[in-house]
Design brief:
seven-stranded mixed beta sheet, alpha/beta, single chain, eight-stranded mixed beta sheet, 503 residues, 19% strand, globular, 19 strands
Length: 503
């Protein structure tokens, strides 16, 4: 017969303390309560450490280099600009690739569009300007920086230049400057002519919190075949959103070596974007201008999109006859500054009583045909140019129509002369080109030859129009030319059910 439990000898040394503190608890219950307390304390301590580490700037809290705040600086900087403000020019940081030896000549283009104390960014040179002799830097130029040494990187392209390595890293060096309130990094060349207001209009369509890579491809198929159809060409410029730039700079140096055989800087950036998994978003207003000859046909039938950039202007004929290249650019920009959104936007209309067709590229040119030409033909660029690499007649990445030598198959061409602001719009004047050496002697041409000038009236084109589904605006002929030889044309929004049909 066993003894009562109270009379059993004590086997557990903790039992006296358990009975003393919790006389009614069993040992198993006490152990369970103890473990619960330990778990609760551990949870609270871990949570506190996580919150402290997240909000602390102390790098010692991070155990890996990838987690060091200095390596993920974009997170803290980027939160400073996550607001509801509409994107404007101050949210863009330009990174312009240049050379100390060519800058004095190339600066003529950039100083046309650069706005000191408004546009932000730098021209990146290969060395100090003026051979390091303390040359006074012009006030109208962007401030400059000298790129880092790239001799450690591989470059295996036989027909290219190692400068492509330096220029490819401009986006990285720009990012690492840590400038505040940057939403977009825009890369370009020192001979790229940007139209900043339209650049802002285009970028405002996209969420800068997302990873975007925006630009255009070459006009010449041979260039796209050699380099790529899936990259933003650097001469026409391309834009990279802040989050994508943050990811790009993390992998860029490794990409440069992996794509050592590539020709250009933009091709390397495109290769890196492929590794990140972000495709280029094509915006047709970025123009590489990989053509030879006259850009007239391309600009007279511009895509239905804001004009963002022009490149290679030293390699094509001047935009306007009788002017040098720089004066031609300044003349186009004169119109652009009055109505940026409307610049180069095409409108077409007909004078059915006279069987005339009119095409207007606002701020640049007007064409007058003494016959009815379909809208499809009028919106197809006249081929006034050849391919970039081989100076061939084709192919291009868009359709073209033949520019014949027969004056009876060609339009009368008028070039932009002046612009005046009237109420809520403009009146632009276009004068007959003096370069036409031979006139057509057919009867229908006799009716249009007296027209020496076109006056085009239009309301300002508001940037909100680009947020809508794209539609080319209509125009109408207001008179027959009269005795003064001036044809009056009005550009306006198309009415409901209205189409441009030469009936």
């Amino acid at each position: 017969m066993s003894l009562p439990p109270a009379k059993l000898p004590l086997q557990d040394p903790l039992k006296p303390w358990k009975y003393f503190l919790f006389p009614s608890l069993r040992f198993s219950h006490a152990l369970t309560m103890f473990m619960k307390c330990v778990l609760l304390f551990s949870t609270l301590a871990s949570t506190s450490l996580v919150f402290y580490a997240f909000f602390s700037d102390n790098p010692r809290l991070f155990l890996c280099s990838e987690c060091d705040p200095s390596n993920i600086r974009f997170k803290t900087n980027y939160q400073e600009i996550t607001n509801d403000d509409v994107t404007n020019i101050t949210h863009i940081q330009f990174g312009i690739g240049g050379s100390a030896k060519t800058w004095e000549e190339r600066r003529r283009y950039i100083e046309i569009w650069w706005k000191p104390n408004i546009t932000r960014g730098f021209i990146w040179l290969d060395e100090e300007p003026g051979n390091g002799g303390g040359t006074t830097w012009p006030d109208n130029s962007p401030p400059y920086k000298v790129s880092e040494d790239t001799s450690r990187f591989k470059y295996n392209c036989d027909y290219g230049s190692r400068s492509a390595l330096r220029i490819a890293r401009i986006v990285k060096e720009s990012f690492e400057l840590g400038m505040e309130n940057v939403r977009w990094f825009v890369m370009g060349d020192d001979d790229t002519l940007f139209f900043p207001d339209n650049l802002v209009t285009v970028l405002s369509k996209y969420d800068y919190n997302e990873m975007y890579y925006i630009g255009g491809i070459s006009e010449s198929v041979e260039q796209d075949l050699i380099h790529s159809y899936s990259m933003g060409y650097g001469g026409g410029g391309f834009a990279i959103s802040y989050p994508l730039a943050a990811e790009l700079v993390r992998v860029l140096d490794g990409c440069i070596d992996r794509y050592a055989s590539f020709y250009g800087s933009d091709q390397r950036i495109g290769g890196c974007m492929s590794e990140i998994g972000v495709p280029v978003t094509i915006e047709p207003g970025f123009h590489q201008v990989d053509i030879r000859g006259s850009p007239y046909g391309l600009l007279a039938a511009h895509p239905l999109a804001p004009l963002v950039s022009l490149h290679h202007l030293d390699y094509v004929q001047p935009l306007f006859p009788g002017m040098n290249r720089i004066d031609s650019v300044k003349h186009l920009v004169e119109a652009y500054r009055i109505d940026p959104s409307r610049t180069l936007q095409q409108s077409i209309c007909y004078n059915l009583n006279s069987s005339w067709s009119i095409s207007v590229s606002w701020g640049y040119t007007a064409q007058l045909y003494p016959s009815l030409i379909t809208a499809k033909d009028l919106t197809t660029p006249l081929q006034t140019f050849l391919t970039w690499r081989t100076w061939s007649g084709e192919p291009f990445t868009f359709n073209t129509r033949i520019q014949t030598l027969d004056p009876c198959d060609r339009p009368l061409i008028y070039y932009f002369d002046s612009v005046n602001v009237v109420d809520n719009g403009t009146v632009t004047s276009y004068r007959r080109s003096a370069e036409e050496k031979k006139e057509c002697d057919k009867d229908n041409y006799a009716t249009v030859l007296p027209i020496q000038k076109l006056n085009i009236s239009a309301l300002f084109l508001h940037i909100d129009e680009w947020k809508k589904a794209p539609r080319r605006q209509c125009c109408e002929v207001m008179n027959s030319g009269g005795d003064d030889g001036v044809l009056q044309v009005r550009i306006r929004s198309c009415n409901q059910w209205e189409s441009v049909t030469p009936l």
